[in-house]
Amino acid sequence: MRSLELERLGHWPKAARYGLGGLLLTLGNFGGRAPLGVAFLAASRGRAAMLAAMAGGVLGAVLTMDFAAGLRYCGILVLVYALCGAFRDTAYLEREWFRPLAAAGMTAAVELAGLRGLGDLLPYLTYAALAGLLCHYISLLLLRRRERPRESAAARLRRRLELSAAAFRDLYNSFGRSGGGKSEEDPAVVFDRAAEAVCRSCQLCRHCWDQEYISTFNALNDATPAMAERGRSLPEDYPDHFRHRCLRLPQFLAAVNQEWNALLLRRQYARRLEAERQRSVGQFAQMSEFLGQAAATPVESVVKSVSYQVGSASRPKEGESVCGDCAVWFETDQGLLYLLIGDGMGSGEEARREASTALRLLEQFLRAGVEPAPALKTINAAQALRSEETGAFTTLDLLEVDLGAKEASLYKYGAAPTYIKRYGKVRRLTGIALPAGLQEVQSVPSPIRFPLEEGSFLLMISDGIADAAGDDWLQDLLAGWQGGGPQRLVSVLMAESRSHGGLQDDCSALCLQLVEGKKEV
Asked: Model-level pTM?
């Protein structure tokens, strides 16, 4: 109700302006005719504005016109107001021609009603036409004043994305303030519940729990560490005075062990519930990151300062028909080149499906302009959910190359080493993060950043080819490589790996070389 009253009060300044306009334009009449006042009323937008303009015109007629001229003028104003009101809920009212015709038509209707001869016809029609023409120009003026600078489609989209990102961020923060993590249940509840079930009907209950409460409490407290370490309570955990005094020791220990198992189950359930809660809440933060980055991504042309060649190869494990690895590369509209290798757990069709699903989702995020860190975080969370059902996980190796700045960033989720050959020297890059699905949900491996120079080679492999413990042969091959481009290199590498255990697992490799001239694959 309060907001409705304020909304109504907000119309009064506008109505007052239109009323004053109607009054002033009527005061400037000539010979009892004020076409500007009629045009202003017909051009006014909104019921309150038209009513105020009509009231101002009527007041002006009373102040400056004789009775007959004022009556005609007020009749014109009333008819124009009534006609516009009758068509208020139709599309005709907003047609460009409707209001000028209303002003001219109602003026002509009232004026011609008092026509005394054909000699007066031309002035009357001129008066009516003038009212319509003035209404047209006043309408254009009022509409121009109402227009606001319009946002471009890109600006509107960016603003909506920013507002959505802020909403998800506030939602995420609200969960943080609610204090989701609760302290674990006190082990003392085990003894309380066991005593309630066994000791209440014992004849020594008052003696143990009232007169000797401190002694009983200390005995139970001293027995707790051994019970927690062993997973069950035994008689030797308790002091002699307690064991000799207790009339129902076997029943009490059985009840304690039952309650301890129940406590462990409740703790396990609470931990899983909290983990699921944190995982779900984390999705709001990731969505906020996505939307915020999408809003902040500028749309501009990118000038590339370097070209490149890419070589790729894959081979299934011996005895398998399908390679469980997946390797892709692509370039985005922002001048970013991505190379990705995914290695699904195990081998064969199932491993291939896990790896290709993760890489496909990653590619969609990256092509949409999402930064690698939040994209990987989301894939990791999704893999964690899938691993609860299937027990599977996937290693992810992601290289981002800025072709304009010739800078690279490398992200590794449990992936095999990456190698850079520059000036005849080989550098090995490794990561310590676990595979996607096993890594902590909200964590992202720190990127390895480095410049790329023309003529250098960058080699990404799956662990079926080599790992950090047995890659001397690979480094030697790469350091002495003089045999051609990256596709030739990965072909020789795949063949050479056969004699170094490369048949025991799926093998994949991607090789990037920055070159001068046209891009080749």
From this structure: 0.52
